[in-house]
Structures
1.
Amino acid sequence: MIPELAHLALVIAFGVALVQSTLPLAGAARNDAGLIGLASSAAWAQFVLLTFSFGALVHLYMVSDFSILNVYQNSHDSKPMLYKITGTWGNHEGSLLLWVWVLTLFGAALAAFGKSMPATFKARVLAVQGMVTVAFIAFTLFTSNPFERLDPAPLEGTGLNPLLQDPGLAFHPPMLYIGYVGFSITFAFAVAALIEGRVDPSWARWIRPWVLIAWSSLTLGIALGSYWAYYELGWGGWWFWDPVENASFLPWLAGTALLHSIIVVEKRDSLKSWTILLAIFTFGFSLLGTFLVRSGVLTSVHAFAVDPDRGMFILLILAVALVGPLLLFAWRAPQMRASGAFQPISREGALIMNNLLLAAATGVVLLGTLYPLFLELVTGEKISVGPPFFNATFIPLMVPLLLILPIGTLLAWKRGDLRRSLRLMSLAAVAAIALALVAAFTDPRSTIVTALGFALAGWLFGGAVMDLLQRAGIGRSSWARLPARLVSLPGSAYAAAVAHTGVAVTVIGITASSAWQTEVITSMGYGDSQRVAGYNVTLAHVGPVQGPNWIANEGTFEVERDGRHIATLTSDRRHYPVEGTSTTEVGITSNLWRDVYVVIGEQTGDGLYVVRLYHNPLVVWIWLGTLLMAVAAVVSMADRRFRVGAPEPKRAKAAAAPAAPAPQAGS
Amino acid sequence: MRTRKRQRFLLVSLSLLLLGGATALILTALEENIAFFAGPAELVNGQVEPGKRLRLGGLVVDGSVLHGANGEVRFHLTDELADIEVRYVGILPDLFREGQGIVAIGMLSPEGRFDASEVLAKHDEGYMPPEVAEALERANHLMRLQEAGS
């Protein structure tokens, strides 16, 4: 009964979404308060219906109801409860339902928190959000019904891919989806603004918290996925430029550009068309990512069951989501005039450079990801584009971006004083040189590139500090008042400094862990020791271990340094009898300065075990940096200015602009 | 007006410069960093020059896996037409088995052996990597051609 009710709830939600996507639009056009009010009620209703539907699916997984095809295919009675629950979204149908639930969650949140917006605008945003929901519920109902029954019901399920039986599954996909789906709201804001033909600083102020939520969740989601890959795959790496990783990175890059261009719209009433385009494309990339993962065109650890119909359906959604708004854009773009002119050397100019470089980086990643698909389609030739390609193209675009970043934050709006900014940056340059020297003398393996990476981090961190000091009026007011002025800076000032510091921390992590990684592959018997970067690793014991639904051969390793015991690590080769597959569990001991990472391999003919050891210096910094960025976005969201009623838009000023100004720069 | 025009000119030229730069980067990187796909038959027939990065797909020949010291492994890969020796140092994936389809990434050595830097096997026993299927298909095709020719 429960699955039928849950299915019914989904069908009703589809109807409600249809209403939400049409009537409020008519209401907004005719200024009919009743129809306008319908938008919020419909959003709430959908959220309730989907919560029931998704909750029911989780319940069916928890009680292992194998009369449901989806549960039968992806679960097993012997699985620990945590993985029964998380297994709900460890498959295509369940994860799609989670996706739709997050969509309706955002709809309800907008209905609840969008009080500062005019009712007509809010109704239009909700209507566009409703259209996205219509498309995705239709996708679920027609191609991927999670509530399909199986008759007769089997006694036992077929289990879940052991790689997914990990706490990582509890956090990585939901975070990622909040990010992906969060960009549907910013998309809805962009399309609603196109319908109204109005983009102004207050629009930017309304959309900004949503961009921040989506961006911060996507950042965390990607970082969690990367950390998961690091400890689960046992390859010692944390990013593989796998097509599916790229699929989540594309909306992140575009979203990062959006995050910055919105500031220009808010502060300077400029860069409007470009911002609208970014909002549309960021969601487009989210959809593209979904398509790549679910259509089976790619083979990767993430590939869900292959079904061409599903791929076609998402491609259709993607096409409509891009073509419709772009036509609307072509019609409305000439009306979006900038009111604020500016010099090339200015905060705006620097942010445009930021956007151009991020857009170029997005293009490079997009091309590297899709090129093999195109080539195979056109010539039938199978190729793969691997990490060397991305390192050779992506990094050269990131370096100038990070070089310009701190200078840009010190430039004034409209017309900046480059010499003054550079003078302020001379202190950051000292930090950069200091860090480069540290890098050069810490490890003999350091190359010029390593020193440059560290210098870049010092430059960014110094720039973040100078940014705060400048905003606190250094040199313009007395030193005694500096601390008080620093404390009274708005949250968003700290957010920028913290986020850019996060970038610096991540850059250090990436540079150090790739330049100074030590990898040793060896054969070990009981009592054998192996040195890796000053650590002595001894294989103490190998023996069978029994888990809830697996059996393992577990190796126990003692890690010592200079005779001092550091840690006891275990690494398993687990076999999951239900699924008939095996996984390797890695042993890691982590601190701020290094990870020691042990993987046990197969036993060879001579009774020895193949063992792979890694020493990864500063690798945790990669994820600490991303955490700082995500936290910064939350700090920025808490900024007072977005909570209290937004000031009136500068309409009078826009009207006073020259009669026929050139279309917006950057469009 | 004048400054707006100048500004737009600057922006457009900057964008073009960046576009050109990115394109140049992509083209040089693509030239050097693409791994083409090949099957054992193509390697044995000398259709591929040594030292070029490749993805090699095939089935692991039964009884061919030899473990050496310090994680060195040698085994043979076949597409049922030809087979080639593969050398790899490292931990084989969990689902590496004799008779299974796998993908090795690396390059042909001058001695005609394939030196793999990475070995991939899917984490699902029922699954055949598309590259392996492709290699078998190509070999099949070649065999039929040879039969027709002789």
2.
Amino acid sequence: MRYLPLVWASLFHKKTRLILTLLSLTAAFMLFGLLQAVSVLFSSGADFVGANRLITQARVSFTQPLPLALLPRIEAIPGVARVAYSQFFGGIYIEERNFFPQFAVDPERLLDAYPEWVLPDDQRQAFISTKTGAIVGRKLVEKYGFKIGDKIPLKSFIFTKKDGTRAWEWEVVGIFDGKDEDWAGRSNLMYLNYGHFDEARQFGQGGAGVYIIRVADPNESERIANEVDRQFENSPDETKTQTEKDWNLSFARQIGDIGLIVTAILGAVFFTILLVTGNTMSQAVRERIPEFAVLKTLGFSDGKVTALVLAEAFALCLIGGLIGMTLAVGAAKVVSGLLNGSPVVVQPVVWIQAFATMVGLAVAVGIFPALRARRLQIVDALAGR
Amino acid sequence: MTTALVSIRGVSKRYTRGKQTVEVLSHLDLDIASGDFLALMGPSGSGKTTLLNLIGGLDQPSGGEIRVNDQRIDTLSSGALARWRARHVGFVFQFYNLLPVLSAEANVELPLLLTDLSKAQRKKNVAAALAVVGLSDRATHKPNELSGGQQQRVAIARALVGDPTLLVCDEPTGDLDRKTADEVLTLLQDLNRNYGKTIIMVTHDAKAAEFATHRLQMDKGALVAGEAA
């Protein structure tokens, strides 16, 4: 501890360089914290704890529809409170850049399965009774100015109508909101009445992309998920049932091996940081060779001088690392919102990894300058040789 | 009769630069009494700084024997020599060699970091050393906020703070104007006379040497003349 003021003061030898290096380290560790948190989320196994909604899709792929004939068998499983079904519509509103998700659903079932959506009763009834009806989320209303009674043209890139066109028209009969801020943030989607959709489409009648199962007791989720999949085992329509959270994440997993991508990005980032910080430390020591010679003259041993340089490298990495990781915690909250509520949290394991990285980086960037300071000959260094 | 604090017998120092070996000191014998203020003089390249470095334990001789306070220092390992320097020698350099990022008091405290003294005791000793050199009011100033003379006084306080056996000064006034140089030399003289400090000073300056109690002339690695004060 008695050497701390000396180490601290040495860090400020060149303030501008210190600030720039700290900014680099901060950015690197913010990226580290955030990406590792995302990676931990994506690499975590199935987690049924607290899950009150399950999603069942075809075992092969979510693009493979499941027949609606499965519905009564799923409903019959003890513990299932309500079952809805949903088909991704894939519609473009006027221009391609105006894409937002739309799902064809059975209105009653969908609204029962998602009590988080708030919709006035008369609009709910209108959605149920209007075959070409649709409800839009509050965020879409804010973005596109939709209002009840509007006819919204959508061009589906998946479904052709029986008349051979892809131009669909849906009437806005309701505007739904989220029950809280979190759900309000997710209301950038649109639900279409399945009845008209199924009648009018050219192919795929009587099928849906996924089943949404609301369970009565979240503690029963894992059992129910296993039971659903067991029911359809070895049938033409084998299923895969997972929690809603895991299902959402599985979309992102399709991008590729998230862990590998994260590792590759962080590898590149830390290689650059290694060079930047290594250069800073080398320069800092090279410029202060006479100062280290003075310390040795005063009686500081080779070991103490080595330790001082390493401590300086450690302090540098620790400060940059801690600021970066703190910013990562804030950034993780923003990313959580973008992932529709999947909690991206900088968990203790990520903090431990970050701390280990700070120590490793400090040793890597500090060891060679430290050895240089250790080996310097006092007489030569004082004489500027 | 004074006892010899520093005893040098048959000391040689050779440097190898590329293929050339240069003998800087050649079989030198010298005794320096405790309480002496010795000025080592001579032209550039005469070997006076090399001799000073050997006495201060900054370098090892190629041959011969060096004793300080009856302890052989030419056989000590690098680590043991570092510990010996910390306990027994205070250094003053021509260009002060203060750490620019530290305040005057933090610079003076540096040698005490190697001792077992508590923080409070270190603070007390630092204050005392700064008071001796007349810079109590500049304790928190950084070197770049001090004049050359003040910086050298801080360096002297740093050399003194550990109460060393001897003070080793390499051209301590070489970077100062005459008036400031005389103030620094008066301070060294005061430390020698009133605090009993043994001082060995290398200087080119004949006027500076007049402050010493004893002067030695060197040339081509050998002592060529001595004069009692």
